[in-house]
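[User] At your convenience, examine this fold.
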Amino acid sequence: MDTKHAQRKAQEALALLVDTGQAWISRLRLRALVWILGIALATTAMVLLTSVSWVPVVGVAVAAAAMSINKVASRLSKPTCWSCGHDLSAQPVNNWGAACPTCGALNQPRPDEAAGLALREQADQIDIADGHDSAPVEGGESKT
């Protein structure tokens, strides 16, 4: 029983290794490129092989390309491992990033809105301390 379990684990590990020969983000980029090329080829064939005007065909093609890229890129809106695509939203972030529980890759998180707002406030405070504020001075003029 123990050897069957070990064999099954080895087969799963080998299948995972063969399946993830390419990083998840690379596969995502390739998928987007294939969609765009397919839409462009279909549009060209439609215009050349039929008597349809090119203006509505190109308009529909641009809309289809935008929707395809949006669908492909929607997986990047949440914290995701760039190596395997695993959701990292529940993983703790340390100084080096978040470690993926599936593949072990380190991923740097995107700065969130709160961190960006705090950085802007710090920059504003530094500007005010340096005398670059826009507060009015004597005479009614403001500093620049």
